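User: Continuing from earlier, I have the next pair ready.

Assistant: Great, send them over.

User: Here they are, in order.

Assistant: Folding the first of the pair now:
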Amino acid sequence: MHGPGSAAWLLVAVCAATGAYCLLRMRSRVEEQRRTAGGEALMGFGMALMAIPAAVVTPPPAAWAVYAAVFGAAALRALWAARSSAHHLHHLVGAFTMAYMAVAMAAAPGGHAGHKGTGAPLVTGLLLLYFAGYVLWSGARLVPVATAGGPPASGWGDRPELARACRLSMGIGMVAMLLTM
């Protein structure tokens, strides 16, 4: 990712922190939360690695093939999981987007995005629209609403508002990364 160094490092920090929190969520007592948290941790750490400024570390060309393979496999897993939960469709789009960006970065001059002409403009535009809409939707879901007085969450892994905030930050990160393509 090219652009202001401080913005790239902020994206790295936010994505890495999100990935770390998702690892904590994997300790939840709710099986579905554990399952989705693993995929979200992969996305957070993958986004953090991809966002490291090219001036600091330029990954070898084979790294982009590894990213594409890992996120291609994650997309297939999300496609399989989407049979039982619509939320996995978002994971499918996210994993596909990461694989798409890895392929585009491999094809980019110097092996890093930020150069005009990386990726297919139509695909990039559609993904950008999807994630911009997702950011608006998930941001609106963070607005506090009156609760029915249910039991408080018992641990860090069972806090739905923190999980939503993580998904929002990863969506914003995805928009930022797609804008550089």
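And the other member of the pair:
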Amino acid sequence: MSAAHPDCDRTGAAAGDGGRTPYSGWTLATCILASSLAFIDGSVINVALPAIGRDLHAGAADLQWTINAYLLPLSALLLLGGAAGDRFGRRRLLIAGVALFAVASVACAVAPSRAVLLAARAAQGIGAAMLMPNSLAILGNAFSGEARGRAIGTWAAAGAIAGAVGPPLGGWLVDSVGWRAIFYLNLPLAFGAIVAAWARVAESAEGKLPLDLPGAALATVALGALAWGLTWWSNARAIDAMASASLAAGIVALVLFVWYERRRGERAMMPLALFGSRAFVGLSLLTFLLYGALGGLLVLLPYLLIEAGGYTPLQAGLALLPFPALIGGASRAVGRLAEKLGPRLPLSIGPLIVAGGFALMLRLDPQASYWTSVLPPLLIIAAGMAGAVAPLTTAVLGSVDKEHTGTASGLNSALARTGGLIATAATGAVIGASGAALVSAYHLAALIAGATCLLAALIAWSTLSEHSTAKRSR
């Protein structure tokens, strides 16, 4: 069976009445708790960057790696995490990933140096690479048809709400307790996810192929070299010998990764048969571009507000609150609409609206009123993302057969995090600036992000059809 087409009969047979399996409510709650670990951690760290820099005497490159030490293993190993869940059991990998994430969070909280913090952040990334794809694959296995669209919309909305709570709560903790306290937020969520998964989530495993460890190693080397080269370039503001060598090594490793995956065929952690579908190719490019632009925004905006606008971490966290709140409030409704209309329209219009929001960011002044300068473009970007998040996730799951849901989910999540990884690695020129230069550098970054989202909209319109993936998954 081709990986590019869903096995509709088997999906329907697996689901219970109304497209739901037994304990589907508990399954949804477990997936929300587990995924919220990554959503909260990814949002709170951004408002804590200036405080971490002052406490650990970290420069711009160190702050970039505080984020990328987490994103690198997450991006490179999500594919392996999804394939491992398909082979050994998705619930088993979910529980192990949540446990590792919790232990690593404690290590981050007590880290005595930059090196220890970066190592603990990398361990968090490995845990997230285990829990994220299997959380979504478990969800896709427990629901089908319109029930799947509603469940994924609820999952996306809950993740947005968790992301909304993270920045203001994290900012308050940074102001009142210190930046180390933000990592303890993960512990109650981890405990709840493990208990619920153990007691109420059914085990599922579809694949029987051996794990692709050489492929995972090549992906890690490729992304690591590219991230290092971009970080070096963005801080030095020049393509010198070090940046050139690192980028060249990353490109070579990436080419070797694709070549090796092609040789392995269906045994690869990224089967190239997945790209036999034009829709899946378009969704993959859309994910990389859209989430790359979003990743850069969520790193740079709170940094700009704190450093150039005089905001406290709490104020910066509250400033971001409307963004995930709007996404969370609209994702479920948009998910239901996309299930009826297909993915093409929302996935074309959404990125176009995001591009308009970034264009308005060119007028942003961190010293001006929040209500007239910061909030309007933020709301426009949030509205565009709300139109894309749930339809994108549903479309990706619907573009492959049941056996490859873990792999496809891992690949799509990996592309989203890789986009954020590349964007963060290129932010050194902004983070390393100050005063008026910081604002000008931010405006240039917003212009690039807007162009990226415009390209994403064009790709969605040209590669998807009205009756594409989301409707075929019923």
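Worth noting for the second one:
Residues 60 and 431 are 6 Å apart (CA to CA). The chain has two domains: 8-211+269-472, 212-268.
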